[in-house]
Specification:
By secondary structure, this protein is mainly beta. Helix content is about 5%, strand content about 40%. The protein has 6 helices and 46 strands.
């Protein structure tokens, strides 16, 4: 058995052929082996320039020729030569196209190289065209293609095919044949030559829009097609689209189509490139023209950074260019625009009077900035905002399939002598810049700190609310989360309000559709009366505490997974104040020992409707020591929220038969009443009662709207244990568990943290 470095165990392969056994061949699976061996060498010919002139080595125009780059007799690299004669009648529009390689096979070690030669005036060979397939490793092999102008009729050319070479041992492939094809055709691009002198695109008026079209091919290596069109008038928008009807090209397009739009001074104002060569070509943009004059559009094949090889052309793809020039119809822009905080359009709000902000995202980047000037007032207020349904279609199709719009409301922080002081105050002082996050390194924390400490932002901007379009979540496709209600302290005189697109690259969004957002500043009388925490004494009859939750998006319980699209808050939204909290301090009225606790609350429906704008939960802090005058005390905070399914009361083992309905809900007039049933045996343990008081904060939960939520909480206490109706249908009431034999207290009810 003889080991051959280029073909493997040759003796074994020959023996297998002789005995009729299956041939054992070396697999070609990684793509970086020196060989891709099929066993015996295929027939080899056309190995010299002299052989190229023979009929067997003459190529037929526009037909594939198959052959192998296999090992030569001396073990060296295989090189194949072919001749081809071009037709007569060629013109300056004629193109010579050479295509070859191993495209269509899974692996080959060959780095395919093709050179087109011709005999020069001195009798030596001159290169007409050349290309290398720089495929390395396990990547799928690609074809190489060269297309370039060639107008010499009846020319006789020589095509040299080989591996790129430069390695030992030489790379060969006697399993997979390569293909080579030489063809001549006219350039289908009627605009050529337009690499330097652009092809004018004539614009014609239609419905207030100047529009025109053209088309082209990137037919040859490093081809660049230039077009031009005029723009004149104040605040003109240029809409540009480059597209093609060709799709699913196999093999895929030989390049990634790209474009650059340049202003009259020759400076780029827009660029775009297809993500990959497999996609159907479709690139678009909309830009605000910076000046009058002639604009230049350049269409070309994208060149990777540091790419030294030519970008090949492709005769299969015709692209179409559409240009529209139109005046900006956004009256909020004015003459200077409102795309930055410095140019924000001032809007004066009157207390209680709704104001509608309007505009268009008509180009990129088009951020709509408004400065809401607030009226003077002595008490707290709430700013409410709501995105209204979008009107008619714009004057061009949306630039991206997935919209990425955003609303932000921010307050400028001016406290501090220097910008560093103001930034630090914004980022660290919750009394100046409220925040609903605890961890500054969390997503919301980094978002807020980034705006507080943003370079060049002075005054720093304290983010109060942010709404992000969640188009991937079907319930949010109508931007139903683009509503909010935020508290505004008396000293705040202005707010920055923005509506913009946040997309990057090809997902940058604009649609020229008019939008409107309703904003209103309302007094918050409920908050104004809460200068101190009210104290309410509990007794044997129901005692009521009232309030209104006026702002915030509320906590989430049933709507905890924001990706489900429940409620009106998206998974990436932010509120500096998550919910209005109405706090109360309740005393036990001198009672001692365990106390039965009767509890129910009522929620008013929104605007007289059939359901409230959300539900409420109770944040409870029970004192485990002496309470303080402000209601604070040593202890822990627990959350009480209703569950309307069956679950086991605290005093029973957790077996299935012990499950009970402990909360009930009913509609009564224009309100929803939630009651804790006696079977739940809610009670207040004596160690809490000994503290003298407990604190309750009522918070909004699982909001479905931003309307205020009026509520009342009714409670009573009485000696423990109480009784409840027999759940098994008996007529004798059942007592809650009393004192245990070991002398422990009967009330051991506890709320979860």
């Amino acid at each position: 058995m003889i080991w051959n470095q280029t073909r493997g165990f040759v003796g074994l392969a020959i023996a297998a052929l002789a005995t009729g056994c299956p041939v054992m061949v070396e697999p070609c699976v990684e793509g970086d082996e020196p060989t891709c061996d099929a066993g015996a060498l295929p027939a080899d010919s056309c190995n010299t320039l002299e052989e190229a002139a023979s009929p067997d080595c003459t190529l037929t125009l526009c037909e594939d020729r198959e052959a192998f780059l296999s090992e030569t007799a001396d073990g060296g690299a295989d090189v194949d030569f072919y001749s081809v004669t071009l037709p007569g009648g060629l013109t300056p529009r004629s193109l010579l196209s050479v295509r070859g390689g191993y495209g269509g096979v899974p692996q080959t070690p060959i780095n395919f190289s093709v050179n087109v030669l011709r005999t020069g005036a001195d009798g030596g060979l001159q290169t007409v065209a050349s290309a290398n397939n720089q495929r390395m490793g396990a990547a799928l092999p690609k074809n190489v293609e060269v297309t370039q102008p060639f107008s010499e009729s009846n020319a006789r050319l020589v095509v040299r095919v080989s591996d790129v070479g430069g390695v030992t041992p030489p790379r060969v492939d006697n399993r997979n044949p390569y293909r080579i094809n030489v063809c001549v055709q006219d350039n289908p691009d009627q605009n050529e030559p337009n690499d330097m002198t652009p092809t004018p695109i004539a614009l014609a008026a239609s419905n207030g829009v100047q529009q025109g079209t053209s088309s082209g091919y990137l037919a040859t290596n490093n081809d660049l097609d230039a077009f031009s069109f005029p723009v004149s008038g104040a605040r003109q928008i240029i809409y540009l689209r480059i597209s093609s009807t060709a799709m699913n090209l196999m093999p895929p397009l030989a390049y990634r189509l790209a474009f650059t739009l340049k202003n009259p001074a020759g400076m780029p104002i827009a660029e775009g490139v297809m993500d990959n060569e497999f996609l159907q070509v479709d690139l678009s943009t909309a830009r605000l023209a910076p000046a009058d004059g002639t604009y230049r559009l350049e269409v070309f094949g994208y060149r990777q950074p540091n790419q030294m090889t030519p970008v090949p052309g492709d005769l299969r793809l015709r692209y179409d260019v559409e240009v529209r020039v139109m005046p900006d119809l956004d009256t909020s822009e004015g003459t200077m625009g409102n795309d930055t905080a410095a140019t924000a359009r001032p809007v004066n709000l009157a207390l209680g009077a709704p104001t509608t902000l309007t505009g268009r995202i008509a180009y990129v980047p088009d951020s709509e900035w408004f400065r809401l000037n607030l009226p003077s007032r002595s008490g707290p207020a709430v700013l409410r905002y709501e995105l209204l349904p979008t009107g008619a279609a714009g004057r061009f199709p949306p630039l991206a399939m997935i919209p990425t719009r955003q609303i932000r409301v921010a307050q400028e922080i001016t406290t501090g002598a220097t910008i560093a002081d103001r930034q630090n105050n914004c980022a660290t002082r919750a009394d100046l810049c409220p925040r609903s996050f605890e961890d500054p390194f969390s997503g919301p924390g980094q978002l807020v700190n980034g705006l507080c400490r943003g370079p060049g932002i002075d005054p720093p901007q304290c983010l109060l609310a942010e709404r992000n379009e969640e188009f991937q979540l079907p319930p949010f496709r109508s931007q139903k989360n683009f509503v909010g209600a935020i508290p505004v302290p008396p000293g705040v005189t202005s707010l920055l309000f923005t509506y913009s697109d946040t997309g990057k690259g090809r997902v940058k969004y604009a649609d020229d559709r008019e939008w409107s957002i309703r904003v209103v500043l309302e007094d918050d009388p409920d908050e104004a009366m809460r200068t101190t925490i009210p104290t309410v004494a509990l007794g044997s009859t129901l005692t009521e505490a009232r309030g209104v939750l006026t702002h915030g998006y509320g906590k989430t319980i049933a709507f905890e997974d924001l990706n489900d699209g429940q409620g009106i808050r998206g998974p990436n939204d932010y509120d500096a104040t998550d919910t209005d909290r109405d706090a109360f301090r309740f005393t036990y009225g001198g009672a001692m020992g365990d106390q039965t606790w009767q509890l129910e609350w009522t929620i008013g429906n929104a605007d007289g409707g059939s359901r409230p704008a959300g539900t409420v939960a109770l944040e409870l802090r029970f004192c485990e020591g002496a309470s303080q005058a402000d209601g604070g005390c040593p202890g822990r905070t627990s959350i009480l929220a209703p569950r309307f399914d069956l679950f086991t009361p605290w005093y029973l083992p957790r077996e299935l038969p012990n499950r009970r309905i402990q909360y009930t809900q009913m509609q009564q007039g224009n309100a929803t009443i939630i009651r804790v049933e006696p079977v739940a045996c809610y009670c207040l343990a004596q160690q809490f009662v000994a503290g003298g008081a407990f604190q309750m904060s009522v918070v909004a939960v699982d909001r479905t709207g931003n309307d205020p939520i009026p509520f009342s909480v009714r409670q009573s206490i009485s000696a423990y244990p109480g009784t409840y109706a027999n759940p098994d249908g008996g007529t004798t009431p059942v007592s809650c568990p009393g004192n245990t034999p070991d002398g422990g207290g009967g009330c051991r009810f506890q709320l979860a943290n």
